[in-house]
Design a protein that fits this description.
- Helix content is 46%, strand content 22%.
- With 282 residues, it is α+β, with helices and mostly antiparallel strands.
- The protein has 2 domains: 82 residues, no CATH class; 143 residues, MucB/RseB, C-terminal domain (Phosphorylase Kinase, domain 1, 2-Layer Sandwich), CATH 3.30.200.100.
- Strand 3 and strand 4 form a beta hairpin.
- Helix 3 packs antiparallel against helix 4.
- 23% of the residues are buried.
């Protein structure tokens, strides 16, 4: 190894590829060289962060690219041959393109992960009674529910064709700090309480509860006293509760749109928006 710096041997040390004697010499060098010790600490921290990343993305190429940049500075004390290798000169364009594509792909993966909806458990979806009694953040009268303008970001039934009567709606905050829309409506003489929250059902309900296919959506009967059904509608988890027949609740569910979950592009955009909100301090 160079007397000035460890150079590429620092990677061998990280990967336990040195002999016992070489390892002892390298560790002694780290104790005496502040530059190599700083680089050693940076590399260990970066590898640990990537290894424990919740996104689960292989960042090998990105790590190598970042490392090459750092090596170019540390290698000033190395021989010219080693310095050229560290600076990355003469790299195959195809290899560089592969590195760039890997970084872009990893970035898209991170944004997709950030844009993914939060997980909603069955217990959270079943909290209709508590949510209905919560103090509202916003309140909407029947006329505003029917117009749909102020609730366009939420799912609403087809009021005219479903023969449903809106009563009131409110946005509340649940015990976990999440935002929930609570709607009350009439189906004949029956009062239906609808709750909606953004997220994705994580429980395997199909194995635990009776399931009905309603307008292309899997609807789960999760309670019988009172009757309550839960289903996924795009990026929303919807619950309908009523002291009425199950058929009535199924008809109500059929009146809601049947939306597919957001695609890759939409989730990447959501991820960009979340990062922008964090940067802006929102």
């Amino acid at each position: 190894m160079s007397d000035a710096h460890l150079g590429n041997r620092i990677h061998d040390l990280l990967d336990n590829r040195l002999s016992a004697e070489q390892t002892a010499d390298a560790m002694a060098h780290l104790d005496a060289c502040a530059d190599c010790r700083l680089r050693w600490d940076d590399l260990r921290s970066a590898r640990e962060a990537l290894r424990t990343s919740s996104a689960g993305i292989d960042m090998t190429f990105a790590r190598q690219l970042l490392d090459r940049d750092h090596m170019a500075e540390v290698a000033r004390g190395e021989s010219k041959h080693v310095a050229r290798a560290a600076s990355g000169r003469g790299h195959n364009p195809v290899l560089m393109l592969a590195i760039v594509m890997a970084v872009v792909g990893a970035s898209v993966g991170v944004l997709y992960s950030l844009g993914a909806p939060q997980e909603v458990t069955l217990a959270a979806a079943e909290g209709s009674a508590d949510q209905a009694a919560a103090v509202p953040v916003s309140f909407y009268e029947a006329s505003k529910m029917r117009s749909g303008d102020e609730l366009r970001d939420w799912a609403s039934p087809a009021w005219d064709s479903a023969d449903l009567v809106p009563v009131e709606a409110k946005v509340v905050t649940d015990s976990a700090g999440g935002i929930v829309l609570v709607q009350s409506l009439l189906s004949g003489l029956d009062t239906i309480v609808i709750t909606e929250q953004r997220g994705e059902l994580v429980d395997d309900l199909a194995e635990r509860f009776p399931t009905v296919d309603v307008a292309g959506s899997a609807v789960y009967l999760v309670n019988e006293n009172p009757h309550q059904i839960v289903w996924q509608c795009g990026e929303l988890v919807i619950s309908a509760t009523c002291d009425c027949a199950v058929d009535t609740l199924e008809s109500v569910a059929a009146s809601f749109p049947s939306d597919d979950p957001a695609g890759v592009l939409a989730r990447v955009v959501d991820g960009v928006e979340r990062i922008a909100d964090v940067v802006a301090g929102d």
